[in-house]
Amino acid sequence: MNTEQIKDEIARSSGWVSAVKMEMAKVVVGQQELVNRLILSLLCKGHVLLEGVPGLAKTLSVKALAGTLRAGFSRIQFTPDLLPADLLGTMIYNPDERKFTAKKGPVFANLILADEINRAPAKVQSALLEAMQERQVTLGETSYPLPDPFLVLATQNPIEQEGTYQLPEAQLDRFLFKVMVDYPTRDEELRVLEMMSRTVGHPTTSPVVTAEQIEYSRGLMNRIFIDPAIEHYIVDLVRATRAPEKIDRSLEGLVRAGASPRATINIALAARALAFTRQRAYVTPQDVKDLAHDILRHRILLSYEAEAANVSADNVIDHILSKVPVP
Questions:
Q1: CATH 1.10.8.80 region(s) of the chain?
Q2: How far apart are CA 1 and CA 223, in angstroms?
């Protein structure tokens, strides 16, 4: 199948993308970047970490996305007293049959909303690692596969750190995107007021896409062309996060550790997904640049010097994007 044929096939099969956006627009005002990233995560089988102050529709956006899918949805409120068994399930002894049986937890759903994920201790956060990476849960001696699609959409509050547990780097690396959710514009906030300032009659989303449609789109997405020059560009960007002083002396001493090869894979995968949603059969350097911040910001560990100088991971990524040659 040549590029034109793939483009025509993408145009025919990507109608669900606009349908999902239209449904979510009934509930979520603005936040277009957030909605786009949630759709890309569906295509990439990737997990998303949403960070923003309370009240910015993070939880609402995830619930709205779940409403557009004919799929299972679980909301898990992470708290300091949560146990791994509350999340994954456990083995229950049946005295009548004299054997243990698995009681599956809420993680056995298609979309998992891990609300305020940094409120739970490390043992609960680490319980998610197998589910996020291997897409299975081990209870007793048996591993149980999770449904497909399976996405963990986690939220965290960046300003209140009392009683929270910072996510370990190993878990952060398993999130495809870290999306920073910002305040709405004045007009958007006015629309929110008009839409939500009543006690009943709040809008909801309706199912408009099936798991089969998403799976077909994934197969088509994998045939989207990435030029070798763009592949080299992706590798150069990720490698630059590990030794940024080699491309910009002003970044010397600001980064303790850069992004892993998982970031390289995720950028290429997400760039294909972005090209699919833009109904193109090829990836452009701009696709890569549009995704760089959301994929790299949680994978760059800053030094104490950077924090003292008020330098953020986004600042480092801006420097890298401006210095690495674009094909």
A1: 225-323
A2: 9
111-115 and 99-104 beta bridge pairing: unpaired
Q: Where in the chain is the domain with CATH 3.40.50.300?
A: 3-192
Q: What is the pLDDT of residues 297-326, one digit of tens each?
A: 999 888 888 888 888 888 999 999 999 998
Beta-strand runs (E) in the chain: 47-51, 73-77, 89-94, 99-104, 111-115, 136-139, 142-145, 151-156, 175-180, 255-257, 301-302
Q: Cβ neighbours of residue 25 under 8 Å, at least 6 residues apart?
A: 35
Instruction: Please name the residue ranges forming H helices in 243-298.
Output: 261-277, 285-296
Residues 128, 174: Cα–Cα separation, whole Å: 10
Provide the angle, in degrees to the nearest 10, between the axes of the packed helices 228-242 and 313-323.
140
* Surface-to-core class of residue 248, CB atoms within 10 Å of its CB (0-12 exposed, 13-18 middle, 19+ buried): middle
Residue written as tokens 């993680």?
A: 107
CATH 3.30.70.270 for domain 3-192: no
Nearest to 272 by CA among 327, 224, 219: 224
> Which one-letter amino acid corresponds to residue 21?
K
Distance CA 247, CA 238 (A): 12
The pLDDT of residue 161 is 64
Residue 294 has pLDDT above 90, yes or no: yes
Which of these CATH numbers, 4.10.375.10, 1.10.8.80, 1.20.1250.20, 1.10.132.30, describes 225-323? 1.10.8.80
Contact 68, 23 (CB under 8 A): yes
